[in-house]
Design brief:
The chain is mostly helical and 319 residues long. Helix content is 75%, strand content 1%. A two-stranded antiparallel sheet has the order 1-2. The longest helix is centred in the first third of the chain and has 29 residues. The radius of gyration is 19 Å and the shape is globular.
Length: 319
């Protein structure tokens, strides 16, 4: 029977949202203001795309019942961590020293709501608490099942490394550095591609890789998933450029035409809307073909079908 993607997406999004929120710290203590700002930022909504990709990549690869049971708390912590890292980047992205956006996802951005100081600290706190959450989950596993913790430790450590690598100077943050430095300056095709691959693509790659690593994926499977995610990331960013030109603030939940106002080079400004739309379509097709490699009896068919449909819906989104 064909999967009802809309229903599965709704159910998955609700599940992922619950998992992510469960990883957040309790609002208590003298530092509660920054904890409130953390909650506010993560609870602002969003598609929960990255933890959703992590969950479904895990489901795609993992067929071992014992591994599923052992890894579930680690996976949930990593899903929350990835969303915290993504949210921290948005907190800092909106700051006056960066883009200066006062609204995000239809509500006041974190710095505008709590002040620039707490907006900065909330981003810092989220970036650090992400790794605290995953580390705690691993320590809990060690206490509960030391033999299993020892057996799966290499995969858990590797997943944490990928989470850090794809978030930091070799990933998302590195892309953001070049993006900020080159604002108002003309970019070459190579520079723009570097920014897109790292600033947007790295966390998508990391999400799929972490899920697959925890699931026990081999080198070939990881390479395939990373290639797919890279294409999705670039297409996602180009679509973002398109929407900045063609959508409205009411639909997007954030200011439009901000790229032009900030003199930022985008794929649209380099190639025009028509070519941008064609490139999105090409990358979408390549990503779908990549998932086709996993659509066989070795892998979870429902997860594969879901990832294919999710990719198409995200790449061709309207907000």
């Amino acid at each position: 029977m064909k999967m009802d993607f809309s229903l599965e997406l709704k159910n998955t999004a609700e599940l992922v949202d619950q998992i992510v929120k469960a990883q957040l710290p309790e609002i208590t203590g003298q530092q509660k203001t920054v904890l409130e700002a953390m909650q506010y930022s993560v609870n602002a909504g969003g598609k929960r795309l990255r933890p959703m990709l992590m969950l479904k990549s895990f489901s795609l690869i993992c067929s071992d019942a014992e591994r599923k049971e052992i890894m579930e708390p680690i996976l949930h912590a990593a899903m929350g961590a990835m969303e915290m890292i993504h949210t921290f980047s948005l907190c800092h992205d909106d700051l006056p020293c960066m883009d200066g956006d006062k609204y995000r996802r239809g509500q006041e951005s974190t710095w505008y709501h709590f002040g620039e100081d707490m907006g900065t600290l909330a981003g810092d706190a989220l970036s650090l608490y992400a790794f605290e959450a995953v580390s705690r989950a691993f320590l809990n596993l060690q206490n509960k099942a030391p033999e299993a913790a020892m057996r799966y430790a290499p995969d858990i450590i590797r997943a944490m490394y990928v989470l850090a690598e794809k978030s930091g100077v070799s990933g998302m943050l590195g892309g953001q550095v070049v993006d900020v430095e080159m604002t108002g300056k003309p970019l070459t095709e190579e520079q723009l591609g570097f920014i897109y691959r790292l600033k947007t693509g790295a966390l998508l790659e990391g999400s799929m890789l972490v899920g697959a690593i925890l699931a026990g994926a081999n080198a070939e499977e990881l390479k395939k998933l990373e290639e797919i995610a890279a294409r999705v990331g670039i297409a996602f960013q180009i679509q973002d450029d398109i929407l900045d030109e063609t959508s409205t603030q009411e639909v997007l939940g954030k200011p439009i035409h901000s790229d032009a106002e900030n003199n930022k080079t985008t794929y649209v400004s380099l190639h025009g809307l028509k070519d941008a739309e064609q490139e999105v379509e090409r990358l979408s097709q390549e990503a779908e073909e990549g998932f086709g490699w996993f659509c066989n009896e070795r892998y979870n068919a429902d997860a594969c079908a879901f990832l294919m449909e999710l990719t198409k819906s995200l790449i061709h989104r309207k907000k």
